[in-house]
């Protein structure tokens, strides 16, 4: 059975954290990626088959450091996440967090979690963190944050299946109209 209303997943996170790379891995599209911040300046939508019963609209968004927009592209993200009249209002937010820059990225995660929309954290750049000698205890971090945390490398298509599994679990626990509050 297909879901009747489109289920929307927004990809948000700090600039250069790997959002568009994940968007491409999920949708099969070819959104521009680059090894510098500010590559994405507008939102882009594509479809993704998350599970046998869930097709989702995925929205790639410009990178942002906080929910208080200081530039036109940060405003795009702000509108999608905070304007209750926005047609793109997500059912689930994936916060893409750079594991090699974890502190700053988690600060943004906690702002997003305050919105009370279900959140999954996708940890990118685990390879870079490892090279820097940074060890991340993912289960402990997940426990501390209270939301699912999935390590991924969208460049190499790693962790995408696990991320999809976690997304479809979220879908089963929430609907568009019920309480948006969600703890893992
Ligand atoms: N080493 C490594 N590189 C990655 C990983 N994920 C993405 N990248 C690379 O990181 C760079 C930034 O990726 P993008 O997908 O453009 O990042 P973005 O978050 O969309 O960036 P903005 O649109 O500028 O906010 C690219 O060079 C990607 O190939 C990862 O897990 N490991
Ligand atoms: Mg991008």
Percent range for β-strand residues: 15-25%
Radius of gyration, whole Å: 15 Å
Question: What is the helix fraction of residues, given as a range?
Answer: 25-40%
| Low-pLDDT ranges | 176-184
CATH level-3 fold name: Rossmann fold
Secondary-structure class? alpha/beta
N-to-C span? 25 Å
Largest sheet: 6 strands, mixed
The CATH homologous superfamily is termed P-loop containing nucleotide triphosphate hydrolases
Number of helices: 6
* Envelope shape: globular
Report the order of strands and helices. Answer: EHEEHEHEHHEH
Number of domain modules: 1
Beta strands, count: 6
In round numbers, the mean pLDDT is 89
Question: Ligands bound here?
Answer: guanosine-5'-triphosphate, magnesium ion
So, CATH architecture? Answer: 3-Layer(aba) Sandwich
Q: Kindly provide the name of the CATH class.
A: Alpha Beta
